[in-house]
């Protein structure tokens, strides 16, 4: 079943933005922990959380029940 949405670009932006934020968050967190940079670790964790929230919002929007 294919869902048709009028705001497909917004959903795509959330998906790509979430994935990019998670990847950058992982990298920054790893570098921050390795070199003991608390600021970089904090920014990495924030990006991880932001990416997860964007993906959850996209999934929730996709799974809403719509009347036919």
Overview of the structural elements:
The chain has 68 residues and is an all-alpha fold. The protein has a domain at 37-67. The chain is 76% helix and 0% strand. The model has no long low-confidence stretch (mean pLDDT 85). Keywords: Membrane, Transmembrane, Transmembrane helix. The chain crosses the membrane at residues 16-35, 41-60.
SS summary, helix count = 2
Q: Which overall shape is indicated by the principal axes computed on the Cα atoms?
A: elongated
- Poorly predicted runs of 5 or more residues: none
Number of strands: 0
Decide which structural class fits the backbone.
mainly alpha
Helical content class = over 70%
Taking all residues together, what is the mean pLDDT? 85
Distance between the termini: 14 Å
Instruction: Give, in order, the helices and strands.
Output: HH
What's the story with the biggest beta sheet?
none
Radius of gyration: 16 Å
